[in-house]
Amino acid sequence: MDDNTEILTVALTGLNATDNPGPGLGVIRALREEYPKIRIIGLSYDSLEPGIYLHNWVDKTYQIPYPTAEVGLLLDRIKYIHDKENINIIIPNFDSELYNFIKIAPELTGIGIQTFLPTHQQLEARDKANLYKFGEMHGLNVPTDIIAYSAEDIKKAEEKFSYPMVVKGKYYDAYVAHTPDQAQKSFYYLSAQWGFPVIIQQFIKGTEINISCLADGGGKAISIVCMRKLYITEKGKAWAGVTIDSEDLTELAQKFARATNWRGSFELEVMRDANEQLFIMEVNPRFPAWIYLTVAAGQNQPAMLIKLTQKISLPPVPAPTTGKMFVRYAWDHIVDVSEFQQLTAFGEL
Amino acid sequence: MKLRKNIATSENGFIFNPATGDSYSGNAIAAEILSMMKNGQIAEEIKATILEKYDAEPNQLDKDWEDWMLQLKQANLLDE
Asked: Is residue B1 in a domain?
């Protein structure tokens, strides 16, 4: 399957192109650019993930069990889909589902489906709850934090650092709290939404930069593309951004890849403070939603991932092109309700 | 002081710092001066060109030049 003209079937998640978008559509767009004949199988959790209904991008979608369901159910469902679609590669695009996909990866390989994922240990090391310790261990700046299991723990954070502070959900979402009331409200909301623990992190003022990377599993990041956020939504998501390149950012990404021997894609969320110090705010174990910008910068990371999965050696990548911008937009896509009915009744469309 | 090598400038005075993502808009004179700086011309050469081309007082130009340098420095666009 090393010929771009051969049909490649890739299944992936993250079709939720919403106000907190998943990376799925960006990954698909990048793959279609490199592999014009690719067949894309969408794996969805919710019936209203927009990608399900974008048939120019997603050839067929199957619903899969939520990550909280028993892992065996996921494997059974993937086997069912594989029988129909003959999947070559799966690219999971959500943090919360990765544990299960890593767990079933050997069985997937056994039936001919390839993945290129980190290990459970690598996944744990960059978990929000462990990130500060990880940073200390490897000489990486991470804002100090409190791992909170009850609202009482907010007091511990108040003793450690002052307001404002950032209250973060286990998997997603973060709110800046300026008062104890706001911190408590965010704590209850996030624990109800994503479970425990909730992470309360020191607030760092600065410029927000995200770095999208692909690492080979041997300690080397083979592609690094940096993006400065230009427009940030209320949820803290980049709605516009521009590619930048700076030695200290590249070195930070390489340092992380070396420290973890990371395998696959990851995104570093970084803050550059007024003293030019870089802080790692979060590490996402997957492609970011702005992944198509890596294609614009001359480094098609999803296509590179496919090649790594197929054990095709990659030539050295040129330096990313700086000054490439993305400006995201929303679009009202019209579909007939029968499509929605089909998906909800039969779990596939 | 020289303009950093990687700084991108355009004919209409737009300046982009690819290391930080910062961008700035300058007027026509700024665009002209930036172009001369990118060509490696030193301050005295640039000032002489401005004085020759425009109706400007040398003392005022010196003051404006210092202000210009300060702005470029604050924007982190100059090599130290």
From this structure: no
